[in-house]
Write a structure and sequence with these properties.
The protein has a single domain (4-266), classed as Rossmann fold (3-Layer(aba) Sandwich). It is 46% helix and 16% strand. The protein has helices spanning 17-30, 45-49, 61-69, 74-85, 103-110, 114-117, 120-125, 145-153, 171-184, 204-217, 232-240, 244-247, 252-266, and strands at 4-8, 35-40, 87-89, 93-96, 134-139, 156-162, 190-199, 228-229. Strands 3-4-2-5-1-6-7-8 form an 8-stranded mixed beta sheet, with helices on both faces. Helix 1 packs across helix 13 and helix 3 packs antiparallel against helix 4 (74-85). The longest helix is centred in the C-terminal third of the chain and has 15 residues, at 252-266. The relative contact order is 0.19. Bound molecules: adenosine-5'-triphosphate and magnesium ion. Adenosine-5'-triphosphate binds at residues 13-19, 41, 43, 45, 140-141, 197-198, 228, 230-231, 234-235, 238, 253.
Length: 268
Amino acid sequence: MSAKKIAIANQKGGVGKTTTAINVGIGLAREGKKVLLVDFDTQGSMTKALGIKADALRHTICTVMDKALEGDSPEQLKCYMEEFVKLHQEEGVDFIPSNSILAGMENTLLDERPEVRNYILKGILDIYLEEYDFILIDCQPSLGILTLNAFCASDRAIVPVQAQFLALEGFEELIKTVRRVRKKLNPTIDIEGVLLTMTQKNTNMTRQISESLRDKYGRVLNIYQASIPYTVRLGECAQKGRSIYSHDRKSPAADAYMDIVREVMAYE
Ligand SMILES: Nc1ncnc2c1ncn2[C@@H]1O[C@H](COP(=O)(O)OP(=O)(O)OP(=O)(O)O)[C@@H](O)[C@H]1O
Ligand SMILES: [Mg+2]
């Protein structure tokens, strides 16, 4: 087994990255896959949405990165993660938590040589290549050094786009960043798909965003057929630390996320 590593990224905030990471991750686990979720956001939103008080944690992805920068071996890093960092969510996924302390890591990385600073996350996640089928990285809303680390550590990226006014602002920059990473830093990275989120049936806004996405990018990027409908149920999930499947299996969002899970499994 060699884990597929997927970054869930968009520098625009609040577009559904964390919700997608959790529900695609748990959806893959429901299909029998071994899944590791990685919270790579200084807000620790995924950690919180999986039911953990992020800011009380002493051991997070940030402390693993500190140890990697200090020169710990992969074996030492693995022991540390297994004992102190990695957590398990009852619906069948493991995860590496994060919190606001990760914000300080940006400056630490910027002081490092490029060969080191871009690949710290990759070095850490590759320890788990043989143990998981999928490793999903929930990125923060920026294209800074942390997100670059996520792109350097990943084989593919999923880009959630919110069906909202100005949804495609910054989109070009995101695509350019992934292309630049592919050319210079990680030849395997590719955008697997663009996922329209928070869609509302029969509204002009959803229709317009969906059409302009397909018109402008449909020939060069895979735009998922399925989109995620707007539903308060997904917001409730985060409060309860659960996925949509256990919170409201009948929600159309649960079916939509399972459609995406099947596309993710079929992608090669
Ligand atoms: N399909 C949806 N319908 C309704 N609400 C949603 C949907 N998807 C996500 N949300 C809610 O919208 C908010 C933003 O979603 P989420 O945290 O997943 O976005 P994000 O891109 O990770 O945000 P950030 O950029 O801050 O990391 C959350 O409160 C979430 O519960
Ligand atoms: Mg998020």
